[in-house]
Write a structure and sequence with these properties.
single chain; two-stranded antiparallel ribbon; 2 strands; elongated; binds zinc ion
């Protein structure tokens, strides 16, 4: 029964810090400046790969 409580706790915590929302962690520039379509695509691929890895573990 203690395991159920743990799951609820993990659900409530945010996965990523919101600080990175306005900064592009691909080219380290403000997301409002320039074109970041490639950056976001790369980031998406990265997150998918990371998720796959986490699932594998
Ligand atoms: Zn970028």
């Amino acid at each position: 029964m203690t395991d159920q409580r743990r799951n609820l706790r993990l659900r409530g915590t945010p996965m990523r810090p919101l600080d990175l929302n306005f900064m592009c962690n691909r080219c380290n520039k403000l997301r409002a400046h320039g074109n970041h379509t490639k950056c976001s695509k790369l980031r998406q691929v990265e997150s998918v790969e990371r998720r796959a890895r986490e699932k594998g573990l």
